[in-house]
């Protein structure tokens, strides 16, 4: 997962309180696009195998 954090604010320009942090978590840092019609069935199979291996390696 990828986490992006930034200081949280309340919108009051004069506020000096610490509001902690706000952010987002994204599950994928990598996107692959493959088309069977454009790249062939073998390419799709290779990408799926790669995705499974990558997922297994990062889950450890």
Fill in the keyword field for this structure.
two-stranded antiparallel sheet, 60 residues, alpha+beta, single chain
Describe the structure.
With 60 residues, the chain is an alpha+beta fold. The chain has helices at 36-39, 41-59; strands spanning 2-7, 21-26. Strands 1-2 form a two-stranded antiparallel sheet. The relative contact order is 0.16. The model has no long low-confidence stretch (mean pLDDT 89).
List the helices and strands and how they pair.
Layout: E1 2-7, E2 21-26, H1 36-39, H2 41-59
Antiparallel strand pairs: 1-2
Helical fraction: 25-40%
Q: Which class best fits the helix and strand makeup?
A: alpha+beta
Report the portion of residues in β strands: 15-25%
Q: Describe the sheet with the most strands.
A: 2 strands, antiparallel
- The domain count comes to 1
- DSSP strand count: 2
How would you name the oligomeric state of the polypeptide chains in this document?
Answer: single chain
Strand ordering within the main sheet: 1-2
What is the tally of helical segments?
2
End-to-end gap: 14 Å
**Cα-atom Rg, whole angstroms?**
20 Å
Could you give the order of the helices and strands?
EEHH
Low-confidence stretches: none
Shape: elongated
Global mean pLDDT: 89
Brief summary:
The chain has helices at 36-39, 41-59; strands at 2-7, 21-26. By secondary structure, it is of the alpha+beta class.
């Amino acid at each position: 997962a990828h986490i992006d954090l930034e200081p949280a604010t309340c919108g009051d320009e004069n506020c000096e309180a610490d509001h902690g942090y706000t952010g987002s978590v994204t599950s994928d840092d990598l996107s692959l696009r493959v088309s069977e019609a454009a790249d062939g069935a073998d390419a799709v199979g290779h990408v799926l195998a790669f995705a499974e291996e990558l997922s297994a390696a990062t889950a450890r």
